[in-house]
Automatic annotation (TrEMBL), chain A:
Domain UGSC-like, residue spans: 5-176
Domain of life according to the entry: Bacteria
Organism listed in the record: Geodermatophilus ruber
Name under which the protein is recorded: UGSC-like domain-containing protein
Entries under InterPro entries matching the protein: UGSC-like_dom (IPR057767), UGSC_seleno (IPR049831)
Taxonomic classification: Bacteria, Bacillati, Actinomycetota, Actinomycetes, Geodermatophilales
From TrEMBL, chain B:
Domain of life: Bacteria
Protein's name in the database: Thioredoxin
Amino acid sequence: MFDSIIDPTVGAPGNDRGRTALAGRPAQLNGLRLGLLVNTKRNAADFLEEVAAALESEYGVTTVLTRTKPSIVHPAPPEMLEEFRGETDVVVVGVGDCGSCSASAVADGLQLEAAGIPAAVICSDAFRVSADAMANLQGTPGYEYVTTAHPVASLSREGVRERAVAALPEIVGMLTRPAAAVAS
Amino acid sequence: MTALEDPVRTAREAIRYCYEQGWTDGLPVVPATREDLDAFLATTDRDPDEVIGAQEHLNRRVTVRQAAVNAIMAGCEPEYFPVVLAAWDALNGEPATNGGAWQSTSGPAPLLVANGPMRQRLGINCAGGVFGPGFRANATIARAIGLIVRNGYGIKPQQLEQATQGVPGRWQLLVGENEELSPWEPLSVVGGLELGVDAVSAMLIRCCEYVDNRHTESAEAVLQDLADSLARIGAYLGIRHSSGGLVLGPEHAHVLADAGYSRADVQQWLFEHATHSHEELAAAGKVGPGGPAEGDAAFPMMPSAAEIPVLVAGAANAAISMVFRPFGWASWSGRSVPVRWSADARPTTVQEVSP
């Protein structure tokens, strides 16, 4: 009956985004080169540093590259992605703890996967909805990421360390278990 | 009578249909038809397929045509549409808009400022009750922006938009500057345009707070009162300064101008006096990188004098002004955008400044 009403959601066509095939996972992390992709959110760098320290001491990785995104909203630029592709074996991304950066962190995870690099994305649990919405938009519904409790920004360094340690098993699982399971 | 026989019932069903599609901001919309769309597109020379905004990370691109559909739905008249386009362009020209604003926990609201003779032609209120509601052009042009964000970008509350509380007045703030009662040049002239050019300037803001000061003739007393609100610690984000701006009521503007203050003098005075000590910020847990050194007694809460936008709007019936707070660490870019109608559509009839 209302076919003559124009749909306001139709704009210029977007890019066709098929499901991102996730990168193959290593059997174990020992001896691998770790990259850290930091957004500018407060405590994000500290969180990833703590994750890296634990992965180094407990799993034998070497942190070889840390990059901070120029924009908290947008996915990492191509040249940064290229650096990760050239220098790292696995990457940890985070911390998605705001309206746009949680979604953006998921987009980063997916573009790393598309570049053949296994990634573990960390978001806070308050922003699951926008992180999942981004996975859907990127054509990869069900993409999994590690969650830590919100808030992150107000934690002391000690609090950040506890969170990082608590998240570690899940991060390791995400970087090493078969790709199919990561995007269940 | 069936819906088909009763046009009022049909209209209601059409509005309900739009609700069911998830196309509204909570208020009823005007369903857009081909005929309406043609009338709106005729008001501009721009290509209907021109992409006027994109959120690449969301894979969404907004066209002129789509903006027109949403302007119809917001309740605009066709001749408002070039103002909607200028407002949209002005917003997109603000660095703050491109920093995740539409998805932010801050939930910022566009503050759109109209200058030029279109205020009278289109009935854009710049006098009493300027923050609304009650004036169709003000209400619907501002609302159109919100519908474009919602329907064009697909950014909806509690989904991709993650506003913690949001901001009162979001998608409702188009104010005309009261050029006739302002002692200074129009904001659009500060924004780089010729006097008399129809223009929109845009900012994203997080709040408006009144300053009621009716009992002094001292310009400095009024400035001190304004500085106190500008310096409010709750708005200080740490790391760097947040900014602040003023919508001065005509009476306050004249108190200041009569005492010899230019707009730049006002900005400078406020920059120098909107301060807090290290101790005061520390008591609120707001010291850290970029903040005051220990013992600093007068740390400026504004980033610079130039980053305190000042405009004049409202009625000359009480000494009341509004302090507003730009989103994030940004302020106004200082660029106003001219409004351009197609040759056929440039409105000539004067409309009453009433609802």
